[in-house]
Amino acid sequence: MTKLSSKVAVVTGASKGIGAGIAKALAREGAAVVVNYASSKAGADAVVADITSAGGQAIAVQGDVSKASEAQGVIEAAVKQFGRLDVLVNNSGIYEFAAIEEVTEDHYRRQFDVNVLGILLATQAAVKHLGEGASIVNVSSAITHVHTPTAAVYAGTKGAVNAISGVLANELAPRKIRVNVVSPGFVVTEGTHTAGVVGSEMETGLVAQTPLGRAGQPDDIATVVAFLASDDAGWLTGENITASGGIR
């Protein structure tokens, strides 16, 4: 019996990177998974194909979780397809680095809309379907305490995620819905390649600060999320697990 057998999970922002790794890990543990994407249909379809070819259940559902109607549509698609909802992983996020002199209103709003408002809207849509024993896992970042230069706005969004998660853990506890956070350190993904972090001095510096001496991989985060989503973590809520190779 796998840890998430008979469970249904929605993973936002799951077409690539950490989100794709999480979707696959939940499916390996027996969950039926909704692979949400905002724009990369091909990426989401590839994740679904990987899951189904391994014998799992998954569908791809488009939706920008920073828009209320689309966040609701993602959740409703999960319930329509699989009949229930047990796990929500709020993974959707974007990051842009800028020195304080270069921060603009658009730079701020893009990141706060997806990284913060998106979590609120997806959770708002999900809670009406989540029952006793359900799990919400929010993906934050170790950057909130590493304090990387040029990441003021991104780090601010993740600090907000941490605070929101603590509030929701208390707010939803009477309904026996757990809310926890995973805060990854530096992880090699399509996004960190595109952002120019992989192979840069920033990567060198981050790895140098990491006691285990390497960059993370999506599976390093995904296995922690799968644990928090499962009944094995049934006594955990309001926790923030830093999955970073020891970076502090």
Q: Can you put this structure into words, describing what you see?
A:
The protein has 248 residues and is of the alpha/beta class. It has a single domain, classed as Rossmann fold (3-Layer(aba) Sandwich), CATH 3.40.50. The chain has 9 helices and 7 strands. The chain is globular. The model has no long low-confidence stretch (mean pLDDT 96).
- Give the topology string: H per helix, E per strand: EHEHEHEHEHHEHHHE
| CATH fold call | Rossmann fold
Assigned CATH class? Alpha Beta
Discrete helix count:
9
Any chance you could write out the topology, listing elements then pairs?
Blueprint: E1 8-11, H1 17-28, E2 32-37, H2 41-53, E3 57-62, H3 68-82, E4 87-90, H4 105-127, E5 135-139, H5 143-146, H6 152-172, E6 178-184, H7 190-194, H8 201-209, H9 218-229, E7 240-243
Parallel strand pairs: 1-2, 1-4, 2-3, 4-5, 5-6, 6-7
Properties at a glance:
single chain; 248 residues; alpha/beta; Rossmann fold; 7-stranded parallel β-sheet; 9 helices; 7 strands; globular
Question: What does this entry show, briefly?
Answer:
Belongs to the short-chain dehydrogenases/reductases (SDR) family. The protein is of the alpha/beta class and 248 residues long.
